[in-house]
C-alpha cells in the first residue's frame, strides 16, 4: 500500500472531541456484575471464558465502576454490542431497539449514559448492521412461514428448505462467513435499509455519541453508508462513526462515510517492534493480527511514517488506535508475557497521533490468548493487578490530557536505530518529545529539542537539555518530555 500525502486536500472535519479522547473498550458480559439482574445461569466470575457461557457482567456494573474508569483518564467508552441477543458477545442481534435484559435493559443504558455524560465521558455503541441472528423477528418469521413470509426479501434466500441448525447441509441462505447463526441482511431492500438507518437514528436520539460499525465492508454499497452518515450527522454533527476495517480503508474515509477506522495498521507494528524479542508467533498466527515479524526501530519508524500519512490528517487525528481488542489475543500475551514490552507499547499508544483505545483490563496486565480467552472477566481483586502498568497508564493519560502537542501535534521521528526510537509531537503551542529505549541496557539518546527545562511526564522529574540535546534512558524505559 502506498501512503499518500493529503496535507493540502480538502476534507470534512472529524468530530473535534475525538482528537482529545482516550477510549476504553468494554466487553459488557465480562467487565462488572452488579448483582441487580438475577435468576440467571452464570459461570462463576473469573472462570475460563467460554464461547457459549455467560459471566453476567451488566451495564449497572459499568455504572458502579465509573469512578474507576474515570480514574484511568478515560473520557470515552466503546461498548461491544449491548442489544438483546442469544450470545455472550451479542453480535447475534435479536432486537435492535432493546438493550439486553441481562445487561439491565434500556433503563440501565439510560442511567449509564446520563452518568457518563455528567462526568464528561462519551459513549459509543457497536452497530451490527451486516447481519442479524436466527432469533431476529423478521428472520424467525421467514423460518416459520417459508416462501410466504412477509420478510422473505429481507435476506438472501438461496433455496428451500432453510436449514438454520443443520451444519451438515447447506443452510440455503447467505450468512456471515457461512455461519448460519448470522443471516446476512439484504441491504438492497429499501425496507431493510430504512430499518437499519432508523435504528442508527434512534440511538443517536437516545444520546449515544457515535457508532463503531461491525464488518461494514461486507455491506458493499457506498450509498448505504453515505446515507447512514447523512442521517446520523443530521441528528448529531459531533457523532463519531468508526468502522472495523482491517485493511486499506481509503474507500470509506473520503469524508462521505466514516470518520475513521479501528487502526490495526497501528497494532501490528507495535507488536513487531516493542515485542520483537518475545513475540508468541503461534499465538499471533491464531489471532486476528496474524503472523507478525519482528521489526527494528528503523523499520518501525518507516512503517509508522507510512501509517501517519496513509489518510487525510483529519482522519489520522480521529483514528481509533489499539494494541488489542476482543478480536485479538491481548497484547501482553501476544508478546509472550513481556510486561516491559507491553508498557513500552502503552507509552507509544498514548503519545502517538490519533485516539488511543485501551481494551478493558490491559491497564492492570490482564492476559488472554485468542478468542474467547481475550474476553476474560475483569478481576476486581486489586491484589492481582499489575500496579506498575496501572500507574503508568494513569500518568500517560494525564500527560496526554495536559499536552495539546500529545493530543494534536504532528508526528515526526527524529532518531531510529536498532532498539532506540525518538520522536516529536510538534505543535505551535509547544512540542512534546518521546524517547524509547527497547534495549536491555541503558542508553543516551538524542532529542532534537531546544535547550532548556522539560518535565518528564513518566517520572515527574525536571530534565534539562543542553546544546547536545541528549537524555539518559533506562533499559526498557522511556521519557516523555513536555515543556515546563
TrEMBL record:
Q: Which of UniProt's keywords are assigned here?
A: Glycosidase, Hydrolase
Pfam families, per this entry? Alpha-amylase
According to the lineage, what is the superkingdom?
Bacteria
Keyword Hydrolase tagged: yes
Q: Where is the Glycosyl hydrolase family 13 catalytic domain?
A: 25-400
User: What protein am I looking at?
Assistant: Alpha-amylase
Amino acid at each position: 500500500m502506498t501512503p499518500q500525502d493529503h496535507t493540502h486536500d480538502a476534507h470534512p472535519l472529524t468530530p473535534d472531541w475525538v482528537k482529545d479522547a482516550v477510549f476504553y473498550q468494554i466487553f459488557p458480559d465480562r467487565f462488572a456484575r452488579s448483582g441487580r439482574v438475577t435468576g440467571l445461569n452464570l459461570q462463576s466470575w473469573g472462570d475460563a471464558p467460554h464461547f457459549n457461557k455467560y459471566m453476567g457482567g451488566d451495564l449497572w456494573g459499568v455504572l458502579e465502576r465509573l469512578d474507576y474508569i474515570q480514574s484511568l483518564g478515560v473520557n470515552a467508552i466503546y461498548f461491544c454490542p449491548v442489544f438483546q441477543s442469544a450470545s455472550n458477545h451479542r453480535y447475534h442481534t435479536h432486537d435492535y431497539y432493546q438493550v439486553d435484559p441481562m445487561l439491565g435493559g434500556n433503563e440501565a443504558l439510560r442511567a449509564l449514559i446520563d452518568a457518563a455524560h455528567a462526568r464528561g465521558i462519551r459513549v459509543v455503541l457497536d452497530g451490527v448492521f451486516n447481519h442479524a441472528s436466527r432469533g431476529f423477528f423478521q428472520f424467525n418469521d421467514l423460518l416459520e412461514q417459508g416462501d410466504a413470509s412477509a420478510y422473505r426479501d429481507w435476506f438472501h434466500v438461496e433455496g428451500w428448505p432453510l436449514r438454520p441448525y443443520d451444519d451438515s447441509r447447506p443452510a440455503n441462505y447467505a450468512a456471515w462467513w457461512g455461519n448460519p447463526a448470522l443471516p446476512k441482511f439484504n441491504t438492497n431492500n429499501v425496507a431493510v435499509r430504512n430499518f437499519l438507518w432508523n435504528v442508527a437514528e434512534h440511538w443517536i436520539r437516545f444520546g449515544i455519541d457515535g457508532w463503531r460499525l461491525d464488518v461494514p465492508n461486507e455491506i458493499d454499497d457506498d450509498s448505504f453508508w453515505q446515507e447512514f452518515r447523512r442521517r446520523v450527522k443530521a441528528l448529531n454533527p459531533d457523532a463519531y462513526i468508526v468502522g472495523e476495517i482491517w485493511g486499506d480503508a481509503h474507500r470509506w474515509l473520503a469524508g462521505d462515510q466514516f470518520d475513521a477506522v479501528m487502526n490495526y495498521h497501528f497494532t501490528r507494528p507495535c507488536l513487531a517492534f516493542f515485542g520483537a524479542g518475545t513475540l508468541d508467533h503461534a499465538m499471533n498466527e491464531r489471532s486476528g493480527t496474524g503472523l507478525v515479524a519482528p521489526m527494528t526501530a528503523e523499520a518501525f519508524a518507516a512503517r509508522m511514517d507510512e501509517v501517519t500519512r496513509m489518510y487525510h490528517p483529519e482522519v489520522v487525528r480521529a483514528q481509533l488506535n489499539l494494541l488489542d481488542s476482543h478480536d485479538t489475543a491481548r497484547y501482553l500475551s501476544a508478546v509472550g508475557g513481556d510486561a516491559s514490552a507491553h508498557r513500552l507499547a502503552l507509552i507509544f499508544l498514548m503519545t502517538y497521533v490519533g485516539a488511543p483505545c485501551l481494551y478493558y483490563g490491559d491497564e492492570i496486565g490482564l492476559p488472554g490468548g485468542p478468542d474467547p480467552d481475550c474476553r476474560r472477566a475483569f478481576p476486581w481483586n486489586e491484589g492481582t493487578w499489575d500496579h506498575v502498568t496501572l500507574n503508568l497508564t494513569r500518568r500517560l493519560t494525564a500527560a496526554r490530557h495536559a499536552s495539546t502537542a500529545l493530543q494534536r501535534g504532528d508526528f515526526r521521528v527524529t532518531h531510529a536505530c536498532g532498539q532506540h526510537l525518538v520522536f516529536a509531537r510538534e505543535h505551535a503551542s509547544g512540542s512534546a518529545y518521546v524517547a524509547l529505549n527497547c534495549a536491555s541496557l541503558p542508553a543516551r539518546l538524542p532529542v532534537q529539542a531546544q535547550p532548556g527545562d522539560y518535565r518528564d511526564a513518566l517520572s515527574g522529574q525536571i530534565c534539562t537539555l543542553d546544546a547536545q540535546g541528549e537524555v539518559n534512558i533506562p533499559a526498557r524505559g522511556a521519557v516523555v518530555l513536555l515543556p515546563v
